[in-house]
Amino acid sequence: MTGVLKIRRWVGEHVVMGLGLLVLAYTFVPIAVVALMSFNDSSSSRNVYRFQEFTTSNYTDACGPDGLCSSVMLSIWISLGATLLATILGTLAAFALVRHRFKGRSAANLIIFLPMASPEIVMGSSLLALFVSSGLSGQLGFWTVLVAHVMFCLSFVIVTVKARLGGLDDNLEQAAMDLYATEAQTFRRVTFPLVLPGIIAAALLSFSLSFDDFIITNLNSGQEVTFPMYVWGAAQRGVPMQVNVIGTAMFVISIAIVLAVELNRRRQEKALT
């Protein structure tokens, strides 16, 4: 009887962790397939997602297919520009919504969620209608895509930074002012370092959303071809394995950034203690 109770207790203590690991493993299955296929030599078969033979030539010739690297660079530049603009504007808006009271504040909080709740096809067609009505129908390209990406990334930045600001302890800022720090010094030495992890998280989220977007980009890109659009077009005749190389590289870089931020945070915590 005692053994049965121990088993039940052990299961009760570890069932949540076990389920979480199963969900995590299920989530990483597609990423594992992409990483595996980046080493696949599919030149002898039309079925590009059947593993034929191990090769590293996909990495040594990552820019082999025409237009692949140019589409990747275009997506990177658009994502960097959208991330920079959305992070700056979104952070300022989050501070205004959290730290100040003004007319229309509740309505602004509601409107912020509309781009997040709206289907991408609705937002993409709305932005296209805006550009066409503004006389930009013949100038669709890099700048229209950049504006479109800033529009939908902005909401995610505001929500992320607002969550970070809402969790801050006001006593820390008040203590700094009690020690004769000015408002500028308090913001620079106390508030901003505490909000910075939220800002970094919002920036990383914006970059991922911008780099990954297809529907809104496809409606507003004109003749420009981003990486998701290249993959969609290549899928009709056979996706080159170098696409998996790009996907694997982006995943590894993302993990490296997250680990670097986390290690830096732990090092700062140890320094304070």
Please describe what this structure looks like.
This protein has helices at 2-37, 57-60, 68-99, 105-117, 120-133, 142-166, 170-178, 183-212, 215-220, 227-234, 242-272. The protein has 273 residues and is mainly α. The protein is globular and about 70 Å long. The chain is 76% helix and 0% strand. It has a domain at 66-239: MetI-like fold, CATH 1.10.3720.10. 23% of the residues are buried. The longest helix has 36 residues, at 2-37. It is built from eleven helices and no strands.
Descriptive key words:
273 residues; mainly alpha; MetI-like fold; 11 helices; globular
> How helical, in percent, are the residues?
over 70%
Count of DSSP-assigned helices? 11
Q: What fold name goes in the CATH topology slot of the domain at 66-239?
A: MetI-like fold
Largest sheet: none
Overall shape: globular
